[in-house]
Automatic annotation (TrEMBL), chain A:
Membrane-crossing segments per the record: 12-37, 75-95, 107-129, 135-156, 182-203, 209-228, 240-259
Gene3D superfamilies reported in the protein's UniProt record: MetI-like
Compartment list: Cell membrane
Residue ranges occupied by any ABC transmembrane type-1 domain in the UniProt entry: 69-259
GO CC terms of this entry: plasma membrane
Membrane topology: Multi-pass membrane protein
Chief location bin: membrane
Superkingdom of the organism of origin: Bacteria
Protein name: Putrescine transport system permease protein potI (TC 3.A.1.11.2)
Keywords: Cell membrane, Membrane, Transmembrane, Transmembrane helix, Transport
Family, similarity comment: Belongs to the binding-protein-dependent transport system permease family. CysTW subfamily.
One BP term from GO: transmembrane transport
Automatic annotation (TrEMBL), chain B:
TM annotation in the entry: none
Protein name: ABC transporter ATP-binding protein YdcT
Feature: compositional bias, Low complexity: 405-414
Organism: Actinacidiphila cocklensis
Residue ranges of domain ABC transporter in the record: 13-241
Gene giving rise to this polypeptide: ydcT
């Protein structure tokens, strides 16, 4: 015989587990959100003082912060474009062609994902130093493209491998030249993989701290600014930016779900 | 599309010495073949026999190792697929999943720079009875509907030749029958030359005007379905097309257009005109007869059998009732497993397993084959094919192209 609470638990255990996991993920973000409306007493924004929208009204009120934010966004956009273009081409080469060094490339492409970031950052820094390349925007960009590349290759390659090669043959059979086949069939079919790789690249580049700090010289990206200011007391505006980023990300995901849902709905 | 094109004189497709080898494996031995314009031509064979590779070489999706392909008198061997006036209906259809039915069908026209496609696409969808589904995506359609889209997508281009690569393989039996008739209707309506690749002998015989039976990279025999069935030229064709009873017999002599044989003491007669092997007295031939040509009499009624018929004694081993007929397996001195199909007109209650019987048939229904070949050739071909069919349509064969699949299947069969 089962008691009533036990039966209720059995029926709802999945929901409970889901809510707990969600709470674990979202709680830190909620704290950040709450403290973006705080007016701290001293330099440290760790204890609740009283409600204020000051930080939201003057998000760039802290010296250098918005400069570093713009820099990080620019870096992320460029790194995403660079890594997506290079990575997509690499993925096609690896998935479609047999060439010398293919096996080695296939393995090495995973290395940036597997290696500790500290090691990669330090060795890249050493390389730039020895080549007498001045640290700054370009060295950071090169570093970001490098580690984003692997993720794009993996995402796009998986997509290409699951594509039916007969679709391209069918296109050629229906008078599409190789260029038309690529633009009309191959690229649209690979698009979800490419989009996934690009989104991942943007997120990785935007919040990278470790590798960036080895290759930045005196340039300060947003994650570096946050880390630096944390030593002296994080300004409330950092919470504002964090919350804004979180909201944008959630909106993107929800929009994606809605589009996907509508597509699924059209099926029935 | 509405008026049937008059068949142009000459051949729609001519293959000369066409061959394909992969390393040491020969998929297609040098092949000469002419397909008359406007005909429905079937390439029939088991998996790995080279039929799909041949089709792909006509489409230009596979480069031949040697030989040439001519379409309507023009050599196209060096042309890429997108410059050849042929279209293919792929196995599992290969519909573009990101385009709707309308755009799938319009694809070929658009690639050739035709702007106003609406009328043609509409007509084409009506022809295959899918008028209302233009804005659906391929995955929203059933297997039979997808198949029709694949046909429409190819036919709208009015190709000189339509190539069909096992187009009905993924459909269930009932739907397959329906689509066979449908395809035949469409072919008659548009008058385009169809080349149909299949492993299903019934399908090939139902649909095609001419059937080429392929085995191990060669065309074993070519002809009209009835002709192939009645006069197989080899044990492979005899066993692969329907069922044959093959009896090893010694030639005793010839007279007046007949070959006289003896098998396990039984005298048999065979028309010389239907003997594919050389019949010299003292030599051996295989005497073949189809199961439905044989009549079955109980041993007690032996005297009632008219003179001049081939007769063989035996004992019923097994009988299975399948409605229109009863299929018997007979153990006889001339062959341990003779098959007999008796139509269920008047059933003789004595014909049960264990009963002694006499098999008799008109000698004119006997055909002769060279005894030097494997008597069981082509017997397991169908079962083998079933084992090698891709499990799931669409994604199953993603990594391999069908040529490679043919190759591996053949190796596995060795």
């Amino acid at each position: 015989m089962q008691t009533r609470p036990m039966r209720w638990l059995r029926r709802n255990v999945v929901v409970i587990a889901g809510v707990l996991a969600l709470g674990y993920l979202i709680l830190p973000n909620l704290v950040v959100l709450a403290f973006s409306f705080n007016k701290p007493k001293g330099r440290y924004n760790y204890t609740w003082n009283h409600f204020s929208t000051d930080a939201w009204q003057h998000p760039c009120g802290v010296a250098d912060m918005c400069g570093s934010l713009t820099l990080s966004l620019r870096l992320a956009v460029y790194a995403t474009i660079g890594a997506t273009v290079l990575g997509t081409m690499t993925a096609f080469a690896l998935a479609r062609y047999r060439f010398r060094g293919r096996a080695a490339t296939n393995m090495l492409i995973f290395l940036p994902m597997a290696m500790p970031e500290v090691v990669m950052g330090a060795s890249l820094g050493t390389l730039f130093l020895n080549m007498r390349i001045r640290f700054g925007f370009w060295t950071i960009l090169i570093a970001h493209i490098m580690f984003c590349l692997s993720f794009v290759v993996v995402a796009v390659k998986a997509r290409i491998m699951s594509m039916d090669p007969r679709l391209e043959q069918a296109a050629q059979d229906l008078y599409a030249t190789p260029a038309q086949t690529f633009l009309r069939i191959t690229l649209p079919l690979a698009a979800p993989g490419i989009a996934a790789g690009a989104l991942l690249s943007f997120a990785l580049s935007f919040d990278d701290y470790i590798i960036t700090s080895f290759n930045a010289g005196s340039t300060v990206t947003f994650p570096m600014f946050v880390w630096g200011s944390a030593q002296r007391g994080t300004p409330v505006q950092v919470n504002v930016i964090g919350t804004a980023m979180f909201v944008v990300a959630v909106l993107l995901v929800v929009a994606g779900q809605l589009v996907g849902g509508r597509r699924r709905g059209a099926r029935s | 599309m509405t008026t049937a094109r008059t068949a142009a004189p000459g051949d729609a497709v001519r293959l000369s010495g066409l061959s394909k080898t992969y390393g040491s494996f020969t998929a297609v031995h040098p092949l000469d073949l002419a397909v008359p314009a406007g005909s429905f031509f079937a390439l029939l064979g088991a998996s790995g026999c080279g039929k799909t590779t041949t089709l792909r070489m006509i489409a230009g999706l596979e480069d031949p190792t040697a030989g040439s392909v001519a379409l309507g008198g023009q050599d196209v061997t060096a042309l890429p697929p997108y410059k050849r006036p042929v279209n293919t209906v792929f196995q599992n259809y290969a519909l573009f999943p990101h385009l709707d039915i309308y755009e799938n069908v319009a694809f070929g026209l658009r690639r050739r720079g035709i702007k106003s496609v609406k009328q043609q696409v509409g007509d084409m969808l009506d022809l295959v009875q899918l008028g209302g589904l233009a804005r659906r995506k391929p995955h929203q359609l059933s297997g039979g509907q997808q198949q029709r889209v694949a046909v429409a997508r190819a036919l709208i281009n009015k190709p000189e030749v339509l190539l069909l690569d096992e187009p009905l393989g993924a459909l269930d039996l009932k739907l397959r029958r329906q689509m066979q008739l449908e395809l035949k209707r469409i072919q008659t309506e548009v008058g385009i030359t169809f080349i149909h690749v299949t492993h299903d002998q019934e399908e090939a015989m139902t649909m095609a005007d001419t059937v080429a039976v392929m085995n191990a990279g060669r065309v074993e025999q070519l002809g009209a379905p009835a002709d192939l069935y009645e006069n197989p030229g080899s044990t492979f064709v005899a066993n692969f097309l329907g069922t044959s009873n093959l009896i090893e017999a010694e030639v005793t002599g010839t007279s007046g257009g007949d070959v006289h044989l003896v098998a396990a003491g039984q005298r048999l007669t065979l028309p010389a005109a239907r003997c594919a092997a050389e019949a010299t007295a003292g030599g051996t031939v295989l005497a073949g007869v189809r199961p439905e040509k044989i009549a079955l009499a109980h041993r007690d009624d032996e005297d009632a059998i008219p003179e001049g018929r081939n007769r063989v004694p035996g004992r019923i081993v097994d009988s299975s009732f399948i409605g229109v007929s009863t299929q018997y397996v007979i153990d006889s001195p001339v062959c341990p497993e003779l098959e007999v199909f008796v139509p269920n007109v008047e059933r003789d209650g004595r014909l049960v397993p264990g009963a002694p019987v006499v098999l008799h048939w008109n000698p004119a229904h006997t055909f002769g084959l060279d005894a030097a070949q494997d008597i069981d050739a082509g017997l397991d071909a169908d079962a083998e094919e079933a084992a090698h069919l891709p499990a799931a349509p669409g994604r199953g064969g993603a990594g391999k192209d069908s040529a490679a699949k043919d190759g591996t299947a053949a190796e596995a069969a060795v």
